[in-house]
Amino acid sequence: MCDEFINLTIDNLETEHLCCIIRSKKPHQGITAKKQWLSERIKEGHIFRKLNKKATVFIEYAPLEKAWVPIIGDNYYYIYCLWVFGDYKGKGYGKALMEYCLADAKKKGKSGVCMLGAKKQKAWLSDQSFAKKFGFEIVDTTDNEYELLALSFDGTKPKFAPNAKKHIIKNKELTIYYDMQCPYIFQTIEKIKQYCETNNIPITLVYIDTLQKAKQLPCVFNNWGVFYNGKFETVNLLDIAHLKRILKK
Predict the structure, then answer these.
(1) Do 84 and 154 belong to one domain?
(2) What is each CA distance from 144 to 29, 59, 115, 118, 219, in whole angstroms?
(3) pLDDT at res. 28
(4) Of 119, 135, 161, which one is at a domain's C-terminal end?
(5) Total number of domains in the chain
(6) Range of 155's domain?
(7) Cα-based angle 124, 209, 200 (whole degrees, multiple of 5)
(8) Which of 152, 170, 181 is nearest to 61 (CA)?
(9) pTM exceeding 0.85
């Protein structure tokens, strides 16, 4: 099965499909933004491994020290995404991708692998029940039910940065922290901006464009974080229906 997968590199990034469900044949600004972001991250050891087909079957992970998340720890990998979608489910692809990541971590002398989860599975986070089958355990939590899962090889444990547990900001407006790690973010931001402008809803958009900013965020984060009335709401990308529910609070 290994020969069915390829890793994205600086040399093949422009020509390879990014695996997300976006199927537009026209240039897509979200995909362009993601590839620009990824071109810098690959230089830092970021891995994007995918099925060598136009399919949503991939894993994306990076050294925790370079991962754009407010999680701290020494010598870990952080998994951003592990997805197997549609007809490709149930064929062992997810298992193969996770085993590749774990083997890569051991080969490079890592202390373990970690990922973001939640007490109740979130739509835009990888399946934590699947990860637990490989031995991932909860090593840190927040008071709003988010969890840090880790598989440790040497007994050490990563943790949320203290600022990630604040979940409160001074700004009472709808506030969204985001980066371009996901191709869906660009179009989601544009839809939300348009809705807020049309309905005269004040909004603050905070573009996370450096590792330092990501590590200092006031909430858990995988590429997206939403606040309203100064309180943290979700790491899930928003459609308009979800946005309306938040604004009614």
Answers:
(1) yes
(2) 33, 27, 17, 9, 10
(3) 81
(4) 161
(5) 2
(6) 2-161
(7) 70
(8) 181
(9) yes
